[in-house]
Design brief:
Blueprint: H1 6-23, H2 27-41, H3 47-52, H4 64-76, H5 80-86, H6 92-96, H7 104-114, H8 119-127, H9 138-154, E1 159-160, H10 161-177, E2 181-186, H11 188-191, E3 196-197, E4 199-206, H12 209-217, E5 222-228, E6 232-237, E7 242-248, H13 253-261, H14 264-276, E8 279-281, E9 286-288, H15 309-315, H16 331-336, E10 351-352, H17 366-375, E11 380-386, H18 398-412, E12 420-428, H19 439-442, E13 449-451, H20 460-471, E14 478-479, H21 497-507, E15 510-514, H22 527-532, E16 537-540, H23 552-561, H24 578-589
Parallel strand pairs: 4-7, 10-11, 11-12, 12-13, 13-14, 14-15, 15-16
Antiparallel strand pairs: 1-3, 2-4, 5-6, 6-7, 8-9
């Protein structure tokens, strides 16, 4: 029996909470399962060991009854209570939970009143008026359900980078450990750090392809085998994503890695440059053209021996192009003219802002967040709990915010001067562009993250005006998650991003690169324009737990895709210099 994963257990607990809510069970019982699921998502210990030693109750949010159920899951891979509960529901009901804006109460009403238990049935009823006719629904709700169904279909077969990173890194790591493997790398859109990927591509150099391929298709992460051949195998991981293995000879590895990394447009230009030199380039080699009657003029001598990807770019008279830039957005011309940027690296970061604690909707205390930041080698950490309008996130009222400021001051006195916590707030931007706290309170903070958390349906002009008005406030240091998007779940709201970038440049407002893998917002495609306009980036994890500080890794990937250097990212500045950046806008205004 393959061991059940922590994520699977968390999913089961979440499913139990959903079923209990449909059944109308006690709200506290429902919340207990939800809280336990969230607790497991952020638990960093050895769950199997904790279950075996009876220590599950030590995990905050896991009570005695649920600890017993987790122990059963760990020991047997199954939970009798879950199976009995699940048998009461049609299977299609669970798919409806994936639709944005459709919670247990509405699902129960659809089931009870209309007998709807599948998404196709729901789509038909939304189109023919039955859903709109239900009490508490209406035409707008029916239209929103149809939009959610269409969005689900559009995103089918696509996965957030963060949701499949663990699978990708585990597989490539275990491939590298095989004695038969000479080189193992991940290619494709994952290597280019696209925010959403369709599949995973593994490139392995080996002299024993059969052994490596067998290992790949028989791995415990594999749910089904799509194809199993001498040089290519395809499987579907239990996470749902397709993974392809390409087995090559060691001499072929640079070409296979480059080709399967892509993008397709980048590859076309590379092949064109090879042809212009009298060579042919494919996934196996760079070689002289085989046709002696080729119309290519002045072919060079035979291409040099290529040992790695850098050698391939140099053979084509290019500087090495980092994988993140290979999107045919000017990288070839820059490589030819020695104008590629020296991209920012994770180790360049000295601190970060927009982090939450248990004071609002975080799951780690202020002290725990500060300790985790120091363990990562950061010099400073900004705390920006939600403001009062974010009721669902337990936003801070004025008195609680003032108390937190004092708590941060006291904590800073315990450090030796080489680390500091900055006191901030993630302040809601109201519909009219005003802020959730008055200026006399905002000026007590070291910095302010201004974000939209409501009224997403404004027109583009209204939303743009709303954000610009917020940025015009001299106390707003940075704009948080600019478009409000949730990848594969919620589209960005309508907003004129070039106008926002212009306003940020004019007001001296930083724009956040929200590194949470569910957001990765502002999108990488806009950062070259922001850079051109002189707008600086601040990479923030939007951390709600100490583990979430690791999201900075995803933020760096997106920053690199956006052509950003350490000079473009303010939190690459060390303690002692970052303070001036945080204060600059207020000083300029006043």
């Amino acid at each position: 029996m393959a061991p059940i994963t922590k994520d699977k257990i968390a999913d089961i607990l979440e499913n139990i909470a959903q079923m209990l809510e449909i059944k109308g069970e006690n709200v506290f019982k429902i919340r207990a399962y939800t809280n336990a699921a969230r607790a497991l998502e952020t638990y960093t210990g050895d769950l199997v060991a904790a279950a075996g030693e009876g220590r599950l109750g030590e995990i905050p949010g896991v009570g005695k009854a649920i600890a017993e159920k987790i122990t059963e899951l760990v020991a047997t891979g199954q939970l009798a209570y879950f199976e009995i509960l699940k048998a009461e529901f049609p299977p299609g009901v669970f798919e409806m939970f994936d639709l944005q804006g459709l919670g247990p109460k509405k699902i129960k009403a659809l089931w009870d009143k209309l007998g709807i238990t599948t998404i196709p049935e729901l789509e038909a009823a939304s189109k023919d008026g039955r859903v709109a006719g239900l009490a508490g629904f209406g035409k707008k709700t029916a239209d929103n359900i149809l939009a959610a169904i269409q969005s689900r279909a559009k995103h089918a077969g696509r996965f957030r980078l963060g949701s499949i990173a663990a699978d990708a890194e585990r597989m490539v790591g275990e491939l590298r450990e095989l004695p038969e493997v000479l080189q193992a790398t991940i290619a494709g859109s994952y290597r280019r750090r696209k925010e959403v990927v369709g599949d995973l591509d593994f490139i392995v150099a080996t002299n024993a392809p059969a052994e490596v391929s067998d290992f790949f298709v028989k791995h415990e992460m594999v749910e089904s085998v799509i194809a199993h051949g001498a040089t290519k195998s395809s499987v579907r991981f239990k996470s749902g994503i397709q993974a392809d293995l390409r087995v090559v000879k060691n001499a072929e590895h640079p070409f296979a890695l480059n080709y399967f990394t892509g993008s397709k447009e980048h590859n076309i230009i590379m092949r064109q440059r090879a042809l212009a030199r009298g060579w042919t380039l494919n996934e196996y080699r760079l070689a002289p053209l085989g046709n002696p009657k080729s119309e290519i003029r002045n072919p060079k001598e035979d291409p040099p021996q290529i040992l790695d990807e850098r050698g391939l770019y140099h053979a084509l008279d290019l500087d090495y192009v980092e994988p993140e830039l290979r999107e045919d957005r000017g990288e070839i011309a820059a490589a030819e003219n020695h104008k590629l940027p020296d991209l920012v690296e994770l180790e360049n970061l000295r601190g970060t802002f927009h982090n939450h604690t248990t004071a609002s909707d975080g799951r780690s205390t202020l002290a725990e967040m500060a300790a985790a930041a120091q363990e990562l080698g950061l010099q400073y950490l900004g705390i920006a709990d939600h403001s009062k309008s974010s009721v669902q996130a337990h936003g801070l009222e004025t008195d609680r915010l003032l108390a937190q400021i004092e708590e941060i001051k006291a904590l800073n006195k315990t450090f030796d001067g080489h680390f500091r916590v900055f006191a901030g707030s993630e302040v809601d931007i109201h519909k009219d562009g005003t802020l959730d706290f008055p200026d006399h309170l905002l000026e007590r903070l070291d910095y302010v993250v201004a974000s939209v958390h409501s009224s997403f349906s404004l027109t583009e002009a209204e939303m743009t005006k709303r954000l610009i008005r917020a940025m015009e406030n001299p106390h707003v240091t940075m704009l948080g998650h600019l478009t409000g998007r949730m990848l594969l779940a919620r589209d960005a709201y309508a907003v004129n991003i070039p106008a926002i970038i212009e306003a940020a440049a004019a007001t001296g407002t930083l724009i956040e690169l929200n590194a949470n893998p569910r957001r990765l917002d502002m999108d990488w495609r806009w950062w070259p324009l922001a850079k051109e306009k002189g707008v600086q980036c601040v990479i923030n994890p939007d951390a709600h737990h100490t583990d979430h500080l690791q999201f900075l890794h995803y933020g760096i990937g997106i920053a690199r895709k956006g052509w950003l250097t350490r000079a473009d990212v303010v939190n690459c500045l060390p303690l002692g210099k970052i303070e001036a950046v945080l204060a600059a806008k207020r000083l300029r205004a006043g």
